[in-house]
């Protein structure tokens, strides 16, 4: 390539920074910044912004859904920050700030009880639900944000019920501790999904910078709101509901924008059922759009609780996927649609259906496993601990 400056030998770019070009002219190699001076100045500003708030190598170093998710995550963080200001002011008023009759000891005891119950809630929740936070990250992320809004609403109402104030703030403290566990753990799971160059630490650090910037903006807005909402419960509740609606909408859009390429129970069930119907394999985008994001909302192809799956001690990832496909088929066979008569196949014994599922998998599993766009080197099927080792009969 040749222009007035000479022959372009190479173009150099480091990560998401501006680019430089090397020219050869009259036997001399020159290095120049790509673009005009005005463009270079603008690119320099954009480059600084990217280096501060975006992972190194963006957009190649992150998943395709990174920008959309981060945008909606920023919106929800901003609205949550404003709602948090309203809740904090109500909590401080409830413990006696500004009340000459309140004592420091009483306020301290209330605060300690709230923190103590929150710590217990954190431990119990991590014990009971920690194993589900990877495989159902979207659902628990949405659950955490809904629960956070409920906790802040309780804190805003607490000062209006002084007889139950301690009980209310302690309950809200438990809710917020659960939010901390579920929100932090699911954010880590999403970071693993977003990382494309084993750069999870960089993505997590830049996410923290983005959140800090948003919280700083929320702090400035809060300084304007506080004088307006002081001693005005109607305006406080009105603004809280406005911010909560924005918060929940942004969270829904955020989790809906995530396109995971690994199979969990819901996504594998959705893809397999579609394949059994018309031999078409859904792309990750199509399957993620059909995946439920609310706890308690089950897809029609979900497994009933009566099916238990155990794997051998040396089972591979493909073995996990195969046995899950069998379980999905058996589940759909055992559960005919409402108001329909069961077929002969559905009237078979459970062991006969298991045998049929093995024959079916022998036919369809290998073509199905070659699903385009899906990562079948690992799964989120949550079965790693279910292992059975058969003891051989001694002679």
From TrEMBL:
<dbReference type="InterPro" id="IPR054549">
    <property type="entry name" value="UVB_sens_RUS_dom"/>
</dbReference>
<keyword id="KW-0812">Transmembrane</keyword>
<feature type="domain" description="Protein root UVB sensitive/RUS">
    <location>
        <begin position="42"/>
        <end position="278"/>
    </location>
</feature>
<dbReference type="Pfam" id="PF24160">
    <property type="entry name" value="UVB_sens_C"/>
</dbReference>
<comment type="similarity">
    <text>Belongs to the RUS1 family.</text>
</comment>
<feature type="domain" description="Root UVB sensitive protein C-terminal">
    <location>
        <begin position="305"/>
        <end position="390"/>
    </location>
</feature>
<dbReference type="InterPro" id="IPR006968">
    <property type="entry name" value="RUS_fam"/>
</dbReference>
<keyword id="KW-1133">Transmembrane helix</keyword>
<protein>
    <submittedName>
        <fullName>RUS family member 1</fullName>
    </submittedName>
</protein>
<dbReference type="GO" id="GO:0016020">
    <property type="term" value="C:membrane"/>
</dbReference>
<feature type="transmembrane region" description="Helical">
    <location>
        <begin position="235"/>
        <end position="252"/>
    </location>
</feature>
<dbReference type="Pfam" id="PF04884">
    <property type="entry name" value="UVB_sens_prot"/>
</dbReference>
<keyword id="KW-0472">Membrane</keyword>
<dbReference type="InterPro" id="IPR055412">
    <property type="entry name" value="UVB_sens_C"/>
</dbReference>
<feature type="transmembrane region" description="Helical">
    <location>
        <begin position="212"/>
        <end position="229"/>
    </location>
</feature>
